[in-house]
Design a protein that fits this description.
Blueprint: E1 4-7, H1 29-33, E2 39-42, H2 52-60, E3 67-71, H3 74-79, H4 86-96, E4 103-109, H5 119-128, E5 135-138, H6 143-146, H7 148-160, E6 164-165, E7 168-169, H8 181-189, E8 205-209, H9 214-220, H10 222-233, E9 239-243, H11 250-264
Parallel strand pairs: 1-2, 1-9, 2-3, 3-4, 4-5, 5-6, 7-8, 8-9
Helix pairs in contact: 5-7, 10-11
InterPro entries: DUF72, UPF0759_sf
Length: 283
């Protein structure tokens, strides 16, 4: 029984010396992060397709069962809107090949303007993709969350391709006005959609956004403890990503979520002990 947890990135200035060694070179930070969490969002690939050498470095720093949910590049999803982007897609698929099983799912994050009227385009795109990968789709148009017919149509499109629907749960953030600069920034950028908890496949993926205050983040994820526990009992293998507006404590919070689920399911495989942020000394 395995629950994978992680963050939106594997390096952050405020993690240095706290979760990761302070003087760690960039090329070793994923390895250190992977002792804290066993999954990560591959957000950087949205902005640029990495070189194979870079991806080989990612693979060399992680175990084969480490999960990377890798985002398709912006030219494919936002500029070409899933049509006429074969050159970008082939370059991306070639670049990430060294990840092997670490590429847990390829993440298709669609713009907020991608509506139910575009579902034919999504269906055609999903059916052109190679079956060697698992796929997960994130939509942001409110009709998919508020109109039952649109929701069911999207579920049918995804089910036909054995693809998952990735919810981005921002409800905790928007429960009350922001109290920090990071929260104010998140208010202007993050989607404001209802919470969704239905899994379509055996590998559900959740993106959860809390608040900068730890207590409010923990309070906000309580509904997910029930959902994730039920998924595990059903034999599913979920991945849960913890975000906060400043992400300062995200690795610890991800582990805390895992421990909260494990308190309900003692048979859940524990996370390994993280390596210390700084070398231990005798004096």
């Amino acid at each position: 029984m395995r629950l994978h947890v992680g963050c939106a990135m594997w390096t952050h200035a405020r993690w240095q010396g706290r979760f990761l060694p302070g003087q760690l070179p960039p090329g070793e930070r994923l390895r250190s992060y992977a002792t804290w969490c066993d999954a990560v969002e591959g957000n950087t690939t949205f902005y640029a397709t990495p070189t194979r050498a870079t991806v080989e470095s990612w693979a060399g720093q992680t175990a084969p069962d480490f999960r990377m949910v890798v985002k398709l590049p912006k030219p494919i999803t936002h500029e070409h809107r899933l049509t006429g982007a074969d050159e970008h897609l082939h370059a991306f698929l070639d670049a990430i090949e060294p990840l092997g099983p670490r590429a847990h799912a390829l993440w298709i994050q669609l713009p907020g303007s991608f509506s139910p009227a575009d579902l034919g385009t999504l269906s055609a795109f999903l059916h052109r993709l190679p079956r060697s990968h698992r796929y997960a789709v994130e939509v942001r148009h409110r009709a998919f969350f508020e109109d039952e017919r649109s929701e069911r149509l999207l579920e049918r499109v995804l089910a036909a391709a054995d693809a998952e629907w990735v919810p981005f749960d921002t409800t905790t953030l928007f429960q009350s006005p922001p109290t920090s600069d990071a929260e104010r920034d998140a208010w202007t950028k993050k989607p404001r959609v209802p919470r969704r908890t239905r899994a379509l496949t055996g590998h559900p993926i959740v993106r959860y956004l809390g608040r900068d205050a730890e207590a409010r983040t923990v309070e906000g994820w309580r509904p997910w403890l029930d959902v994730v526990t039920d998924w595990l009992r059903e034999g599913r293998s979920p991945t849960f990503f913890v975000h906060t507006p400043d992400n300062a404590d995200a690795p610890k919070l991800a582990r805390d979520f895992h421990e909260a689920v494990r308190a309900r399911l003692p048979a859940l495989t524990p996370l390994p002990e993280p390596e210390p942020a700084d070398p231990l000394t005798l004096f």
